[in-house]
Specification:
By secondary structure, the chain is an alpha+beta fold. It has a single domain, classed as 3-Layer(aba) Sandwich (Endonuclease, Chain A), CATH 3.40.960. It is built from 3 helices and 4 strands, in the order H-E-E-E-H-E-H. Strands 1-2-3-4 form a 4-stranded mixed sheet, with helices on both faces. Helix 1 packs across helix 3. It is globular, with a radius of gyration of 13 Å.
Amino acid sequence: MAVNFDSKEEEWIYNSLKKFKLDFFYHYEIFGGSLLRGGIIVDYAVWRPMLTPFEYFGPYWHAGQLGVDDKLKLIAEEQYFGQPPIVAYGSDIFDQQSSDDFVRQNVL
């Protein structure tokens, strides 16, 4: 089954998680996901050993300071998963190697 990525950075992160043999879900839905108003789609949910949210906030949609909607999303994810999300920004991931480095340092 082919995966449709929202960005090249999400594909690099996906490749990094696979490279390090981590168990994860891509576009994990909580609180109704795309079916319910207020639902959330988490970029990745990674087992480490507990299921942990992992978000990529790229420069196109998330330039500058995080907006209120992004802050609320992270708070909701922390409440749901019982631990803070891992967040990567555009300045963290700019090619496959930087994605591998970020995952090695922040996810493993």
